[in-house]
């Protein structure tokens, strides 16, 4: 087959590389060897030709005049952002000589890789890089910034990261969008819900702390106090048991511990729950009866509600609800947090953890980068950042920046742009865009695995992640075959995985023909749960062993200073985390950074809509335009979007976010910080 790259003109299949559940099928239009348009692939069974505005403007990002074209070396003070071009040979030599000296003086654990899923391609995000850093024996990173707390919580109840097939939700009669801003962050789930509403009168209920675009589309929007969702779910369980709305046969056949749960939820009477959550007593009854009557009913569990101190327990608790009504038995009934177990591939073959000799190698939680750089003994002396932009996206940004400013820290950043993080680098390496690489993609929402074949030539002198780690391995003198595998070989290793029968027919060769293939999930999901008991664990002995209560429980948020407002700095519609926050087109779509404030609070503080306010706590401060209204409850402040500070504009919200860890998996607690607000005089 002729490669897409060598064909100057035409339309080529592709897949969206961004960290977004939808993982849309794309068609890339080329003229004279350049991309001129990116659109949705109408043949894709789930995403059906619809894509978001962000990616419709992807060409502007790929060919942005600020894209990096050559390696760069720092030529003045750290953080000043002044660099000079160097060759790849010089860049690799600089890195390797520095690392060799560090390894001689301080051992390989003085080096720390820091990465995330800026490109979701499995080779790019967790392929050759993992092999390389295992072989190097560097410190290891716990990649906990996104969904781990909820993932662990969900698994305590359900055994793995799997729920119903989202395509089946077209049959659902009730959609509860719980802590998810689906219009912005999972648009095709919203499309399915709206179609179900039109075709058979399905209802859409949104439970959120902010009435954003998703809330506005709901049939019923339920505002809730941040971090109290497990109390609401427990109150629903209280009513389900007390009004005999539970499915006893299902509980007997498929669950463990329902008798203990029935006793336990007696304490969560609607009045108590209302005082915790702010949801009126009659609404708790109404929601519960609606949930019990609608069949099939579907709960889409978002990521927002688990970015809290108690986020793991919140998701663990909500995940119990469908078992009480037996919703799982109906086609289109149940819940979905993530589908990532469905397309699980051979991670050990791809990442080769066996190459790491010292199994006691120290590990750092990525949510605490500032602490790691400032307080660790013996220190981390070198950081290699790729596929992430911690100067903006990590909590406690002021600490992160202080850490990055350390003169004795040697920082390498591999990215497409001179990001806020790259400004602190000693060496910057230019990265290819996903359209320039071979890779495979596994959605964490739908059940399709995609092959991405390169569509365009590499931009300037940029190199892919896998190429960079092959070069580093060679220059440092590692001659392991594992560090020489081609991208195609890496994909073949990853897909060779008999342990996951759903992948049976998904091979590299089949993907070259078909571009995307659906997991073959033919077994009975409920009969193959990966919990210790093989059943849905309403009562979990495993949790007791891990130091948690056995039954779902509401635990309040951690005290966070004495500031009056809870601050929820969420993502926005036109950026993807910090991606696009540096592209003019996307900035103009989003206009400006804002905080949403309840009009009662605004009145007390003398703040008018559109005025600039100062928000601060002991960690940092921002000055942002206030949007006053009824989109948030009193006592809550919400911002959207990960904007960088700009001259005269302090809008880096993560300067305010805590780097405490959530109750499970070392997850992030972006949304459990408190702030004060006042009018900027
Ligand atoms: N347009 C766009 N799409 C994206 C992203 C993006 O930045 N922009 N990011 C991508 C990534 S990496 C991820 S992880 C996902 C995240 O997407 P989502 O799963 O939607 O998560 P968030 O947008 O963080 O939060 C969802 C909602 O939770 C609400 N929330 C916060 N705290 C609470 C609470 O205590 N209770 C309840 N009920 N609600 C609460 C917030 O107000 C928000 O509306 O989206 C992905 N898609
Ligand atoms: N306040 C607050 N903070 C948050 C969140 C929130 O809701 N609120 N959300 C959190 C969540 S859920 C997540 S997932 C994180 C995400 O945070 P990040 O993982 O940092 O995601 P991005 O900001 O999109 O940055 C990805 C970077 O990778 C680069 N990149 C893209 N492709 C490639 C490639 O092929 N190779 C290399 N080397 N680089 C590439 C991009 O140019 C970009 O600079 O942010 C977290 N931070
Ligand atoms: S960001 Fe999400 S919705 Fe937009 S094209 Fe990519 S996968 Fe689709
Ligand atoms: Mo995320």
CATH class of the largest domain: Alpha Beta
State the end-to-end CA separation: 66 Å
Count of beta strands: 27
Give the tally of structural domains. 3
Short description:
By secondary structure, the protein is of the alpha/beta class.
What would you note in describing this structure?
This protein has 681 residues and is of the alpha/beta class. The protein is built from 26 helices and 27 strands. The strands form seven sheets. A six-stranded mixed β-sheet has the order 5-4-17-16-15-6, with helices on one face. Strands 22-26-23-25-24-27 form a six-stranded mixed β-barrel. A five-stranded parallel β-sheet has the order 10-9-8-12-13, sandwiched between helices. Strand 9, helix 9 and strand 10 form a beta-alpha-beta unit. Helix 18 crosses helix 20. The chain is globular, with a radius of gyration of 25 Å. The N and C termini lie far apart (66 Å). The model has no long low-confidence stretch (mean pLDDT 97). The structure holds ligand MGD (2 copies), iron/sulfur cluster (SF4) and molybdenum atom.
List the defining traits of the structure above.
681 residues, alpha/beta, Rossmann fold, Dimethylsulfoxide Reductase, domain 2, Barwin-like endoglucanases, six-stranded mixed barrel, 26 helices, binds ligand MGD, binds iron/sulfur cluster, binds molybdenum atom
